[in-house]
Amino acid sequence: MGLTFADIQAMSREQSAIYPPMESLPVLTEYSEDEKRICELQIGFADRLRKSTFYITEPKKSTELERYSDKYRPSAAARPVLKRKDLHAAFFPPDLLEGYFNPKRKRISEKKSSKQVNLDDLGDDADDQEKTDEERSDAGSQAADEDYDVDEEYDNDYAENYFDNGEGDDMDDLGGGGGVDEGGTVASQLYPDLLLTLCVQAMTWTRLHHTHNCMLFCCTRYIIALTIKSLQFVFADPRTREVLPCLFGMHGRYMAVDVEIVACILPPPTPHLSMFALSLTLSFFLLAVPATVSACEGECIVGITKAFNGNYSRPVQTVMQQIAQQVGQRLVPQHSGDAMKYLRPIMNAYDNTSYDSMETAIFPSFFHGKCLDKNGNEPAGCPNPDCPIVCGTPGSLVHFYSTLRFIAFNETKAILEAHSSPGSDAYQQTEDAIVRAASGPARMVRRYMRSGVDAGRDEYVKKREEDVKRGLRDIMKQVPTLLQKACGGRAADSPDGLPECSWEDAMKEFILSYP
Description:
- The structure is a single chain.
- The protein is mainly alpha-helical.
- Among the domains are: about 185-290, no CATH class; about 300-510, no CATH class.
- The protein is built from 22 helices and two strands.
- The protein has helices at about 5-15, 35-50, 95-100, 125-130, 135-145, 150-155, 160, 190-210, 215-230, 240-245, 260-265, 275-290, 300-310, 315-330, 340, 345-360, 395-400, 400-420, 425-445, 455-475, 480-485, 505-510, and strands at about 245-250, 255.
- β1 (about 245-250) and β2 form a beta hairpin.
- The protein is flat, with a radius of gyration of 38 Å.
C-alpha cells in the first residue's frame, strides 16, 4: 500500500480536523407584542376548550392500586356539567340527546338469534388435538363474552340504580311514586273527606268548649278553600287579619302560618290532648302549602336581572372603549392598540359583581312582597298586568317601570364607578399595567445611560409615572358621565328618562311573561 507501520503511527498522533467555527450564533430576541398576543390567544383558546362543558374525556377505569398522586388528578365532578336546558333539542338527533342525558334508560335490544352449529365447519379430531391450552382458553373466554349481556350488567349495578349524585338527574321520573304530578303539592293529593272530617271535629270541639270559635272556624274554612281552589290560600278577606293574630309574613314571597298558632287555638288553662293533635295537624296543612305565588321570585328574579345586565352590556362596552381610546392617546401612545387590554381587570370585576348587585338593588331593596292595600285587599291590576302598589309582582314592576329603569341605571353606574375608582383592586391592576407600559421606553434608555446622569433619569421616570397615574385618575372620573351619555342623557325617574337605555316595550312584555 506504500505505507509503513511508522507512517500509520504518525497519522494516529496527528490532531484530527475540526469543524469551522460559527461566526454568528443565533440570539433569542425579545418577544414582540404581536407574538405575545398570539401566544395568549392560543393558550386561552385551548384552555377554554378544556374547561368547556363540551370537552368530553374518556373515563378511565384502572385496576391498579391507588397512588398518592391520584388525588391531584382532575376529577370528573370538578368539570362543568352540560345541562339539557342549555341546548336546543331541535338541533340534535333524538337518540344522541337521550343517550347522553338518560344513560340509565334501558335500551330495547333485539332478541339474539341462537347460533346454529355448522357441522361442516367443525374440524377433525386431529385438528382439535393440535390446539394448545392457550387457544382453548381464548376460545372459552370469547364464548363467555358473546353470552354476556351488557344491559344486564347495568340493570344489576348498584351505582347505576341506587346511587344519587345530588344533581337531580332522577327528578324526571317522579310523580307516579310519591311525587305529585302537574306541579301540585303533597297536601293537594289528600282526600277531601279527610279534610272535612278534621273540620267537623274542630267545630264540634269549639261548641263544647266555647273558646276560639271564630278562629277555628276560619281555620276550617281556609282548609276547605285549599281543597276547592287547588290549595290556593286566600288571605284577601280583611277579617282574616283580625281572627288569626299568629299569621306572619304578610309581606314577602310566601305567606305562612307560624307553629305558634297551636298556642292560639288551645285554651290557656287545660290543654286538651286530642285538640292539640288536631291543631298540630291543621298547622301542618297550613305550613305545608304555600300561598298563591303572585310575587316575582325564582326564575322571575333571575330572568329580569339577567335581562337588564344583558341590555347594559352594550352601553358599558361603549364606555370602556371610549376610556381605552383616551388611555391610548394620552398615556400609552406607543401601545394604543393594546389599551383595551389594560382595562380588562375592571371589566372582569364588573362581570363578577354586576348580577348580585343588580338583583339586590331591584328586588329586596325596592320591589318585594305581595300587593295589599291598607285594608289587606289586593287592588285591581295586581299581580298583573298593571299594579299601582309598590310590591314584588310583575304588575308592579310594569306600573313603576320608570323607577325600575332608573334603579338599573344607577346600580350599573355605581358598579362601574366603584371598580374604576382608586382604591379598588381592579383599578390598581389597571394602573400598574398602564404605568409599566408607559415607563417602558424610559427605563430602556436609562439602562444604557452613563452613571453620571443616572440620578436625573430616575427622577424623570418617577415624574413620568406620577403623570400617568394622575392622567388615569382624570380619565376614569368620566365613567359616570360617559355612561349617562351612552344612555341618551337625562338620568331621572321619569317616563322620558334614559331613552337609549329604556327598552320599555320589550322589557314590559318580558316581565309580564312571568305569572
